[in-house]
Design a protein that fits this description.
- It contains 7 helices and 9 strands; from the N terminus they run βββαβαβαββββαααα.
- It has helices spanning 37-52, 71-88, 97-109, 164-167, 169-178, 193-205, 228-239, and strands at 6-10, 15-22, 25-32, 61-67, 92-96, 113-119, 124-132, 136-146, 158-161.
- Helix 1 crosses helix 2 (71-88) and helix 3 crosses helix 6.
- It is globular.
- The longest helix is centred in the first third of the chain and has 18 residues, at 71-88.
- The protein has 2 domains: 6-97 and 191-214, ATPase, nucleotide binding domain (Nucleotidyltransferase, domain 5, 2-Layer Sandwich), CATH 3.30.420.40; 98-182, 2-Layer Sandwich (Nucleotidyltransferase, domain 5).
- The strands form 2 sheets. It has a 5-stranded mixed β-sheet with strand order 3-2-1-4-5, sandwiched between helices. It has a 4-stranded mixed β-sheet with strand order 8-7-6-9.
- By secondary structure, the protein is of the alpha/beta class.
- A hairpin with a 4-residue loop joins strand 1 and strand 2 (15-22).
Amino acid sequence: MRMPLILAIESSSELASAALLQGDTLLVRESSGVQTHSQTLLPMVQSVLAQADMRLSQCAAIAFGAGPGAFTGVRTACGIAQGLAFGANLPVVSIVTLLAMAAACRAETGAHEVLAVLDARMGEVYWAQYSYANGWQTVVAPTLSAVADVVPQHKDGLVACGNGFAAYPGEFEHQAQIYPSLQQARAEVMPHAAQVAYLARSAFAAGRILTPEQAQPIYLRNKIALTIDERLAIKAGAAK
């Protein structure tokens, strides 16, 4: 039986990426710079389709990293996925960004227990914990909190990952004294369309698909910017 052709896009962080997956063949493109995601995603999609000599209409579904993540980035990915799916009359598969990070961490380290932490700016992080055993299970659902409130559940072999550790090294150094599993965090692991594609293929096979109208970003925060006074208060606290 021929494996479905999945097109995936991800732009919830400073790294934007596109991937085309069929069987064991994975084609990817990526670009850094959050200000350019809206300009780079469609050319990357066109590039992977051209390399595969495929048309968009030949895809089984369009997948996207739904967040949580950068507000503009997840909104951009959702909008492009909706537009492509509308135009080609295809279903959409929504993948949680933090789960894609966990999958990337497992691909790199072989870990079955993963804590994924993404920088949420404003002194906070998005985080979730996952366990893998013939598929992923959610241990702690995606959460927005201060670093001090990142409380991993004890699991043997837990590996932590994500740019939240690079964004707040001092705060996580303190947390690592309480939770030793945070000491060797893989800060370089980020959400990527490659993992979105693999996860979407499983979701598609299980029938977890959406119409373009149903696709929505995952937001954990209503407020997306600090006031000047709030930014000054955070700087003063850091200085202390």
